[in-house]
Write a structure and sequence with these properties.
By secondary structure, the protein is α/β, with parallel strands linked by helices. It is 30% helix and 19% strand. It has helices at residues 22-37, 56-68, 84-96, 107-114, 199-209, 222-234, 265-270, 275-280; strands spanning 9-12, 41-46, 74-79, 100-103, 156-159, 166-171, 175-180, 188-192, 196-197, 214-218, 241-245. It has a 4-stranded antiparallel beta sheet with strand order 4-5-8-9.
């Protein structure tokens, strides 16, 4: 007897820290097409946890631009800022299970340790920039008694990754992917000392609790996927499928970012471009 297929649930997850550009548009359009082809549901999550760069006018702009492009989603829109108690509950579960530890080291401490000759976890020459691999010597002993979680949280907390374990998944576009915990990525932040959840924790909790069956996003986030798989496992949840899209670049070969105002959907609209013209270029 064959298993009953899951109802497809995908998501768009724009961050209101700037105007959406062509790269965002293509990724979101691909996500919408995959949800439509599967006869599934598409949610929209407002990733509004970046208190420094978040702006309400960017929220309004991203919704207007996505609708102008012809994208639709199931209401209501999900705001991460409204889900903070859910992320804190997940942090408490990780703490109770001894999966996390407090970190009082600065980024400079980590980089200085990794600059030592032959230091395990040091980034390879020419490697893409990423969160530096947390030095294993900075970890507290696995059997150390954890201090209680404070309210508010006033120090960083990291997930203790299973060093030496290969984490693998098969990407819907890029095929088999794998990374070694402790070598390709290290113990990573799940909660920050400014009392905010990390991107990794918020995404993992949302994908699990909202029933996301496939995450469609840019391939610059493949390494984040390994981290989120470990978080989902630690929380007793099944990871969704993943489909990582190639990034768009400008004429100089530089990946598009929100600073590329000339290629923002807002600028293209003001130039008189039509949604169908832009979609035809994807």
């Amino acid at each position: 007897m064959s298993p009953t297929p899951r109802h497809y649930v995908g998501r768009l997850a724009p961050s209101p820290t700037g105007l959406l550009h062509l790269g965002h548009a293509r990724t979101f359009w691909i996500a919408a097409q995959r949800a439509r082809a599967a006869g599934g549901t598409l949610l929209l999550r407002n990733d509004d946890l970046d208190a420094i760069r978040f702006r309400l006018d960017f929220v309004a702009a991203m919704l207007e631009d996505l609708r102008w492009l012809g994208l639709t989603w199931q209401e209501p829109i999900i705001a991460q800022s409204h889900r903070l108690p859910r992320y804190r509950a997940a942090l408490a579960r990780l703490h109770a299970a001894g999966q996390i530890f407090p970190c009082h080291r600065s980024r400079r401490d980590v980089l200085d340790a990794l600059s030592a000759p032959h230091e395990a976890g040091a980034p390879a020459r020419g490697a893409e920039p990423d969160e530096p691999v947390y030095p294993v010597q900075f970890r507290p002993p696995a059997d150390a008694t954890l201090p209680p979680l404070t309210d508010p949280v006033t120090c960083n907390w990291r997930l203790r990754v299973p060093a030496g374990e290969t984490v693998a998944f098969t990407d819907g576009r890029a095929g088999p992917q794998q990374a070694v915990a402790g070598r390709d990525f290290g113990d990573f932040l799940v909660w920050r000392k400014d009392d905010a959840p990390s991107y990794q924790l918020a995404c993992a909790v949302d994908d699990a609790e909202l029933g996301i069956t496939e995450v469609v996003r840019g391939d610059d986030l493949i390494k984040s996927t390994f981290r989120q798989i470990l978080l989902l496992r630690a929380l007793g949840a099944t990871p969704p499928d993943y489909y990582h899209c190639p990034l768009m670049t400008d004429d100089a070969g530089t990946r598009l970012a929100k600073r590329h105002d000339a290629l923002s959907l807002r600028a293209l609209r003001e130039q008189g471009r039509k949604p169908e013209e832009i979609i035809a270029e994807f």
